[in-house]
Every structure is written in structure tokens, then in C-alpha cells.
Amino acid sequence: MLFRRLRDSIPLLPFFAVVAIFLIVPTVTVLIGAVYDEGGFSLARVQALFTETALSALSKSVLLSGSTALLGAIFGALLAWLIVTRPPESLVRRTVLSLCSVLAQFGGVALAFAFLATIGLNGVLTLWVQEYLGANLAGSGWLYGLPGLILVYTYFQIPLMVIVFLPALEGLREQWREAAISLGASTWQYWREVAVPLLTPAFLGSALLLFANAFAAYATAAALVSQGSPIVPLLIRSALTSEVVLGQSGFAYALALEMIVVVAVVMVAYNLLVRRTARWLR
Amino acid sequence: MRTLGRAALWVVFGLFFLFPLYAMADFSTRNLIQGGRTGAAWANLFTDEALYQAIITSLLLSLLTVVAMLVVLVPTMIWVRLRTPWARGLVEFLCLLPLTIPALVIVVGLKNVYLWVTYLLGESALTLTFVYVVLVLPFAYRALDAALSAIDLQTLAEAARSLGAGWTTTIVRVVVPNIASGVLSAAFISVAVVLGEYTIASLSGFETLQVQIVLIGKSDGPTSVAASLAVLLFGFVLLLVLSLLSRRRRRT
After folding, report:
1. pTM score, whole prediction
2. CA-CA distance, B47 to B172, in Å (whole number)?
3. Which residues of A touch B109 (CB under 8 A)?
4. Which of A56, A86, B104, B129 could form a disulfide with B64 if both were Cys (CB 3.0 to 4.6 A apart)?
């Protein structure tokens, strides 16, 4: 029995090998590297997370992820509602969804350049505003700091919200609205007492997913901010490329551990909320 | 009144999302020195040696990743459904794990693994294929899983086997043609992921398309913007075609 089981699992080996070597080993390396120093267990690297540089990066990362998750969730839900009012087979809906999917998941570096071309020093909108209103839109280089990151992140968070929230909106059945209306509810009452309570777990879950997504995003920020390390992913970059930040090699491991912990906590909460939605969503 | 509000919202969203894309097209065709229009930035995609090489590298990488992903994932997913159902949950968990472990974390822990990879296979950007297979797992898994759930795999496999087909023949000539739509969508999404990937390539020091775009951006903005727009449009067309293909299939 056991022998057969083993023999049967041989075809699974290539898959497990690839996942083990290129996903599990790097993750375990990070976990161990964060608490291992000079031949033994040590909390020195984790302690480095509580220095001023690291804490300030963390708080800015949380601010960035939190604000863009909130903006993305609100406007994304609104856009998803607009999309859901179109018939599912319509070309408009397919085009918008494909565009959302590209911007949300595969944009990365390109989105940074999109905004450099729009409101950078020689950006199209910057030049227009300069010509017609006389104001300097790109003044003080705000695009390369936290405010700029918030704007560009919102640009990919809204489409991501559309993609993850749309299934829940589609799951609201027309019969529920009809039932509510036939029992004498107004449209406003239907939304307040039926739709919104049903959608709340899905909405909060999606917002959490957006938070994790922004917290772990690297490419857009790296392309936009070439100097300084205001947020955690960029601090990891400078730790990786210089190796002597704060006089500690291996600082990158500790920061990566921090990132794993934050993302894992958020994703567990997300899964709990999704399970709640799954009860009525089919 | 209601329709008007809705139309206004569409316009606002449309402006917010399409204006930056329009700005990219405008910016990349602007002649900064003499004014007017020029296609120089777009021509650079082919004439700039480093950029052209990076484009070729990225296209090769996406091709290799798709092939490797299909070779590893398709037989595994079929096998867990037919012979080792106890491993199904584990395979699903592992496939979706890269959603929880950011690429940035993987690249931090990757140094030792890549010392071995470059020792065994030589130093080439194409060795990124292995990590990229892991990176596309969640997207590919969902596409293939949906296709496999839509067919009666058990019956198909038993029929093929009872007619004397071996496992390879069963998978390649019987099952795969039946999940072609899933295979196609897994492949398309993987191509889009690989072409857009920057994190792992840049921090491991390989010169892929995205890395080159950022590098060029420091001296030649319009060329970077042109290349970025090209990648975005390519990804958009890929996903739109996929979406239209799936519609046609559902109708027949």
C-alpha cells in the first residue's frame, strides 16, 4: 500500500522539486537568515528593524498601502458597479476588464513611466497646465516622493479592486432585489439592508488584499524613486545592493521577514473574510 | 438624471485611466529638440542594440517559461486528479503560495540557489525561467484548474487507457486537446507576467526588457516610455484576444 503510494507519487516529483528549490528554499533562507548571525541564533538582525530608519520606512509603507487600499477599494467598487451594469458579453465590459487586468497585475515599471510622461518635468499634462494656467504641476518633485507613490499606486489598485470585487457584485442575485422591492422596499432600502451587508465582508477582504499588494509591490516604486529609500521594499533594495546599511549585512533578511509577517497576517484575515463571502456567493 | 450620473462617472474613470496612456503616446513621439513629431523613440526599440537584445531575451524567457510551466504543471494536475487525490490539496496550496510570498522576498533568499544554478548552467538571463515558473504558478493553476474541472477527466483517461494508450499518449493526445482553452489562457497570462517582471530580474542583475527600460529611462525618457507603452499594449491585446476567444468557444 505504502509502496504503491510512493510509486504513484513519482510523477509529482518534478513539480515538487521546482517549488521546493525556487520557492520554499528562498523563503526558508530568509526565515533562517533573519535570526542567524555569526554561527548561531541571534536577534541582532531583527533588532535592526526597530532602528529609526527601518521604523520610518515601515510607517511610510503602511501609510502608502493603507491609503491606496482605501482609495482603491472605494473607487474600484464604484467602477466595478459601473461595469456590472453592462451585459456580461458586451465588448465594453471585456475591453475594460482586460485593461484592468493589465494595469493591475502586469504594469509595474510601465506605470511609473506612464506618470512620468503625464506629470513629470516634461510631462504632457505638466506642459498643458503650464501653458494655459501658468502653474507648475511637477513643482518640488512631489512625484518622486510619497505623494507621487500614492497617486501611481492608486492607478493600479483601482483595477485590482475591480478584478477581485466584481465576482461578489455579480453574485448579487436579481431575485433578491425583486423580493425586497415586492415586499415594499425602496431601492435605497434594498441597498442599505440587503446588498451592503452582503457585500461588506467581500469589500473588506478585497481592501485587505489591496493592502498586501501595495505593501509587497516593488517595481513601480523602484522605477519612480531612484534615490533614497522611503518605503520597506526600497530599503530592501538598498540593503541588497550595498550590504552595509547600518553596518549590518543580512539586514535584507530581517526586512524580508518583516514583509512576510505583514503580508501573511493580512492574507489570513483576507481568507477568513472570503470564507464568509463564499457562504452565499456561488 | 441617473444615466447622466453614470455617464459622468464613466468619463471620469476613462480620463483617469486613459489619459496617462495617451500621454505616453504623445510623450514618446514628441521631438524634444526641434518640436513636432518624431518616431525616433519607437525606432529605438529595434535599432538600440542593448534594448533590442533585452526584448529578445524577454521574449525567449517568456517562451521558455510557458513551455516549462506546461511541462511541469499539466501532467502534475492531471495526475493528482487521477491517481493521487491525497496530494491535490497540497498541490493547490503550493501553486497559490506565491500570492502570499512576494517576489521581493523570493529574490532576497535566492542568492544561494542561484550560485548553484549559474554554476551548473552558466550565467544567462534565461536561467530566470525557473523562478518565473514559480511566479506564474497561481495564474496558470487557476486557468488550468477551471479547464480540467469542465471535462470528465476520469472517463477520458480510462477510455484512452483501455484502448491501449500509455500515460504520455493519454495526456498529450487525449487530455490536452480537451483543455486547450485552459492551456492557452495559462500560456497568455504567463507571457504577460514574464514580460512585465522587473523585481527578480533587476535584483539578480540580469538584463531583461524591464530592467533595460529603467536603465534607459535615466538618459532617454521617450524611448523608455515608448517601450513601456509597447509592453502595456501587447499585454492588453493578449488578454483581450483571450477574452474574445473564450466567448466564441462558449457559444459553440
Report:
1. 0.87
2. 41
3. 25-30, 33, 253, 256
4. B129
